[in-house]
Write a structure and sequence with these properties.
The complex is a heterotrimer. By secondary structure, chain A is mainly alpha-helical. In chain A, 53% of the residues lie in helices and 6% in strands. In chain A, helix 2 runs antiparallel to helix 3. By secondary structure, chain C is an all-alpha fold. The chains are: A mainly alpha, B alpha+beta, C mainly alpha. Chains in contact: A-B, A-C, B-C.
């Protein structure tokens, strides 16, 4: 428990450093700035002045520090996961889960998916794990035996298959070579909002904004421009989930929790 | 001739009536129908004999057959084989029909008296009629298959009638024994029939008709050589004769006849004396042309006949049951008949068949009369002195005994003498003369034995003191007229029937009536194969035969005239005598030998098969095994769905792993080539998992291990180097031949082609090799096998 | 070896996601308490999420992030309903032992 907390602190620390220290490197290939107003030769509107966002990454994503940060987050993820599946005490398992989520959030940060990292913390660690804790309080029964050992040959076979699967999966994805460095800052995303008329020069130009890749603005644009319908559908889904959960889990009309009802169907039926 | 079918139809109709409706009919109607149907058949035979057949006979030309044929319909027609359902009445079958229907009518009349108290009266007469009808089909059949119908039919009726009182286990077993032994003979008959078909099938249309067997073309066919250098005729006749052995109780298939005495006595008279057992002799006579073509078979027939005659006579010496003695006598006399046909003496054999029918049937009916008087017992040791009490029976019995012993002028004298003379004068080709003497000697001894045991029987039954107990004695009475009338008729026939078969004497020219049978049968059988004898020889043989008969009578008289013989008892108490007596009494232990040699192994085999095939193979392996397999699949399938969520997850994981596994084996990188005209076209196929068209390629088209270069690179590299310029270098990105599709002239592409594919994503290189034969194809395109 | 450790590329993230997925599968198969099983399912969902985000980053595609967001929302809904069902089951049977909850086979 203690070791876990230490690791957790380390992860948070490094992640915070990575976030805070966002000094953009001097980079070739900065977005070019065209002279405003002049219409192009082919009749299109001239691109407006693009206000480049401040680059915040000074490290270019290289160096042993970054690598160390990654390994710490990986350790936190895997360690927390193993915690979950091996703890007998359910609250301990929940804690392990929370640790995993925090480490995963840090990973998202390293991948420049800031918005998603925060959402991960809020929703997963903040809401879902709380829900788990509440349910643990309801299912307050000491466990007899943590390990499910029935049908062990099948599970052993599945374990071997899983090893093979992981190996193949890892083999396939490991060889993926992309040009960009994983930990370096991605290019900014430009969003076109419409036409803009400059009041001074009366030039018509595209009104654009640029956001950092993975920032709230960029994801918002994507979500509300391109994926508005799924977004609304998700909200209905959540509504349905809430209603369903209440319908399933509410107390019965006559009594609260019958003690002697629904004896177990014997599970030792010969198979 | 359109009324021939009536001859078997009447008895069969009577059988149908009695078997289906007889149970509900009063007794008088049952036996009226039965007797009337046989009598009607007899009438039709007489009428056909007297009118059409006689006229045909009288007006016949030399070598022309005398026959009336009725073709009912075509029974089997397959390819060249065309078998008709046809009846033929020629002179031979006319004789047989007369015997069957005549004696049959008498026996039917006798049965009305003998079986008067039988509860299953209608069934009895139904079977009897059925038998008569089947026998008539047998003798009237125009070809082998129709004869076989009758052959089988009489076998069935024999079984039904022997086991008539089937509630007695022993009687039922006797019926089964008869049928099974008969079946063995039937099987041989079938093989013989098939062999005849094999012999004659190339003659065009084959019909297995008896008339065709006398055609010269057919004769050539079945005298052709077949297996082991023997003629077809020899093998066919051999097997047919084995069938006759079964039906006519010769060695080795005679064992059923003594046991067949379990049936009612009229049945024994009709079936086992007069008609069914003579079917074998009739069949040989019918096939006389074919038998005559094979002297080997004829010799075998005669030999078996003689052996049987002698052996059966021996077995009859020590029997104490009245009907048993008569049964062995029948076997013995049948042996005589087979010697007759075996020596080619067709007329004599048929003559003896006829006379034997009269006196043997008479003997059996007389025995029935005696047993009727003795309240059903047949033990001759308990009889004696019956001649005063049963006068008619006694008188007729005496006549029959004289006939069977061959005493002049009764019928047996003439028929038996003819056979003996024919045996002495046998002249089959390729058979040594000594064989004839052996046959004659055996038959003479058999004749001696015949006379002895028959008169032993006569004296023990009718002479001496009455040995029956008092209660039986009170019931002794002469039989009713329904039983004595047939006896009288048969006695008359047994006396006068000899007139148509006189021996040939050169000195005395006889009217043709005295050789009537021979003349009558001449169109229906092949020529006699007995050599002409001098009168001296004829007379000497007659004298010898008579001597045998008289000697037998005298010996029996001396020993048995007062009843069981004390001299015989003394004889049998000696060592040798006891052995002989036991051998005779136990019938040479033939039944026991058959039991241990055939029956027991067969039972063992049946049991083994039952255990192995039925119990193990079918029950355990096939049935149980199928169930086990099904339940195994059930168990396997049940594993999949046991309600636990984790089990389902296992399934998901296994499926995902399988998908990965299988997709890894999918299309590997390969080279595909084909010939287009005189060029070869090579295609590179990148496999799954590689980015298809983006892959970088390198070819080695000549198989020399060096990657080929593009033509431009070759040009560049082969240009001479200018001074000061660095040596030409191969630029790996641009210079190598990397087209996905390559077309080259045939012959310029080496036998082995290699291809290197570099995956742009993983930068891994894979080398694939293919064999491209450098052969020019003459036409068009040819794709890779 | 040093290269793999010191130069972190996209492959590292993806392999990490695969390992996390495997651990989640192990948890589903091996734990008896249904609650832990559901947490393991969450682990598997997270692993998938990491993969999506990594690929989005690799191809500089924002759509992936939206997708990941929706996955998180769906996971939340699923957990809510699942836990409600667990509570109902517990109310009836007084246990949430997956080995004994096998009446689906009928």
């Amino acid at each position: 428990m203690r070791a876990f907390l230490i690791v957790l602190a380390l992860a948070l620390g490094f992640g915070g450093v990575a976030i805070a220290d966002e000094i953009p490197p001097a980079r070739a290939g900065a977005p070019t700035v065209a002279p405003p107003g002049a219409p192009g030769v082919d009749g299109t509107l001239a691109p407006a002045v693009v206000k480049a966002p401040k680059d915040r990454d000074r490290t270019e994503g290289k160096g042993t520090g970054m690598a160390l940060l990654f390994w710490a987050c990986a350790l936190g993820t895997v360690g927390g996961a193993i915690f979950v599946i091996t703890r007998r005490n359910m609250i301990a398992a929940v804690m392990g889960m929370v640790g995993t989520f925090i480490a995963v959030a840090a990973l998202y940060m390293m991948l420049y998916a800031h918005f998603l990292a925060v959402i991960q913390m809020l929703v997963y660690a903040g809401a879902i794990m709380v829900l788990f804790v509440f349910v643990i309080m309801v299912l307050n029964r000491p466990e007899d035996e943590p390990w499910a050992l029935t049908g062990l040959p099948g599970k052993a076979l599945a374990g071997l298959a899983m090893l093979y699967l992981t190996f193949r999966l890892g083999q396939t994805v490991w060889s993926v070579k992309a040009d960009a460095n994983a930990l370096a800052a991605p290019a900014a995303v430009t969003v076109t909002l419409g036409k803009k008329v400059d009041p001074v020069t009366r030039a018509i130009s595209q009104d654009t904004e640029s956001y950092h890749w993975g920032s709230t603005g960029a994801v918002g644009k994507s979500l509300f421009h391109d994926y508005l319908f799924p977004f609304e559908a998700i909200s209905i889904l959540l509504l349905a989930a809430v209603v369903g959960a209440i319908a399933v889990a509410r107390p019965w009309k006559d009594e609260d929790s019958p003690d002697d009802l629904n004896e177990d169907v014997p599970s030792e039926v010969v198979s | 001739m359109s009324t021939l079918y009536l001859i078997p139809a009447f008895p069969l109709g009577g059988a149908l009536f009695n078997l289906l409706l007889g149970r509900k009919m009063p007794r008088w109607m049952v036996h009226f129908v039965a007797v009337a149907s046989v009598a009607a058949s007899f009438g039709v035979v007489l009428w056909t004999f007297a009118n059409p057949l006689w006229h045909l006979f009288a007006g016949r030309q030399e070598g022309q057959p005398v026959e009336l044929v009725q073709n009912l319909y075509t029974w089997i027609q397959v390819g060249d084989l065309k078998i008709e359902m046809a009846f033929r009445l020629d002179t031979l079958s006319a004789v047989m029909c007369l015997i069957i229907t005549g004696v049959g009518t008498l026996i039917h009349i006798y049965s009305t008296g003998y079986m008067a108290e039988e509860p299953r009266y209608a069934a009895y007469f139904g079977y009897l009629n059925l038998f008569t009808g089947s026998m008539l089909i047998l003798v009237l059949g125009a070809n082998l298959p129709v004869m076989f119908i009758g052959w089988e039919g009489v076998g069935v009726c024999s079984y039904l009638l022997i086991g008539f009182w089937f509630t007695n286990e022993a009687y039922a077993t006797a019926g089964r024994k008869a049928f099974i032994v008969n079946r063995i003979g039937d099987f041989a008959f079938l093989i013989g029939m098939f062999l005849m078909y094999m012999a004659t099938k190339d003659l065009g249309s084959t019909s297995l008709d008896f008339a065709t067997f006398r055609d010269p073309a057919a004769q050539t066919a079945y005298t052709a050589s077949s297996w082991f250098g023997e003629r077809y005729a020899m093998w066919a006749c051999l097997f047919l004769f084995i069938g006759a052995c079964g039906k006519s109780a010769q060695i080795p298939l005679y064992v059923w006849l003594p046991d067949a005495m379990a049936g009612p006595t009229p049945v024994s008279a009709l079936i086992h004396a007069a008609t069914m057992v003579t079917a074998g002799v009739y069949m040989v006579a019918r096939m006389s042309w074919v038998f005559a073509a094979s002297s080997t078979t004829m010799a075998i027939v005669a030999g078996i006949g003689a052996l049987t005659a002698l052996t059966a006579a021996f077995m009859a010496f020590a029997q104490t049951d009245l009907k048993r003695v008569l049964a062995y006598s029948t076997v013995s006399q049948l042996g005589f008949m087979f010697v007759g046909v075996g020596t080619g003496n067709w007329t004599a054999a048929i003559f003896h068949l006829g006379t034997h029918a009269f006196f043997k049937a008479g003997l059996f009916l007389g025995a029935g009369s005696v047993m009727h008087a003795m309240s059903g017992s047949g033990d001759i040791m308990k009889m004696g002195g019956l001649r005063k009490r049963l006068p008619i029976t006694h008188a007729t019995f005496l006549i029959f005994c004289l006939a069977i012993s061959g005493i002049f002028p009764f019928a047996g004298f003439f028929s038996k003498d003819e056979i003996l003379a024919g045996a002495w004068g046998m002249s089959l080709p390729d058979v040594p003369r000594a064989y004839a003497y052996v046959l004659w000697g055996a038959l003479s001894l058999a004749a001696l034995g015949t006379a002895f045991y028959m008169w032993r029987l006569y004296f023990l039954v009718f002479h001496g003191e009455i040995r029956a107990d008092q209660e039986t004695q009170d019931h002794i009475h002469e039989s009713p007229w329904s039983m004595t009338f047939p006896l009288i008729v048969l006695a008359v026939l047994a006396t006068v029937a000899g007139v148509i078969g006189f021996p040939h004497l050169h000195a005395w020219h006889m009217p043709s009536l005295l050789h009537g049978l021979e003349i009558w049968l001449e169109p229906s059988v092949t020529g006699s194969m007995v050599s002409q004898a001098t009168d001296l020889r004829t007379g000497a043989l007659i004298g010898a035969a008579t001597l045998m008969g008289v000697a037998g009578i005298v010996a029996a008289y001396v020993l048995y005239r007062h009843g069981p013989s004390k001299q015989v008892e003394q004889f049998t108490s000696t060592e040798l005598g006891n052995r002989l007596y036991q051998a005779s009494k136990h019938k040479l232990w033939v039944d026991e030998i058959y039991d241990s040699a055939f029956i027991r192994p067969f039972r063992w085999l049946a049991r083994a098969l039952f255990e192995l095939v039925d119990r193990f193979l079918i029950d355990t392996v096939l049935v149980g095994g199928s169930a086990w397999v099904v339940s195994l699949f059930g168990r396997l399938m049940r594993w999949v769905q046991n309600g636990q969520v984790q089990r389902y997850m296992v399934g998901v994981i296994l499926g995902a792993a399988a998908v990965f596994f299988l997709s890894g084996r999918a299309a590997r990188p390969a080279i595909e080539w084909r010939k287009v005209g005189d060029r070869i076209e090579l295609r590179a196929y990148a496999g799954a998992g590689l980015q298809g068209n983006g892959a970088r390629l390198r070819w080695d088209l000549t198989g020399d291990g060096e990657w080929d270069l593009k033509p431009e690179a070759l040009d560049r590299l082969s240009k001479p180097r200018k001074p000061g310029e660095p040596p030409h270098q191969i630029e790996p990105e641009k210079d190598y031949l990397s087209d996905p599709v390559i077309v080259r002239h045939n012959g310029s592409v080496g036998p082995y082609v290699r291809l290197e594919i570099i995956d742009p994503l993983t930068h891994k290189a894979r080398v694939v090799q293919a064999y491209v034969p450098m052969v020019v194809s003459l036409s068009g395109t040819e794709t890779q096998p | 070896m040093n290269d793999i450790l010191l130069h972190v590329g996209f492959g590292h993230f993806l392999v990490l996601a695969a390992v996390l997925f495997a651990i989640g599968v192990a948890g589903v198969l091996l734990r008896r308490n249904a609650l832990i099983v559901m947490m393991s399912i969450e682990l598997m969902l997270n692993a998938a999420n990491i993969t999506i985000v990594t690929f989005a980053r690799m191809h500089h595609d924002l759509n992936g992030l939206s997708f990941a967001l929706i996955v998180i929302a769906v996971a939340a809904a699923e957990i809510a309903v699942g836990l409600a069902i667990l509570i109902a089951v517990f109310r009836g049977r007084r246990h949430v032992d997956v080995d004994r909850l096998n009446t689906l086979k009928y």
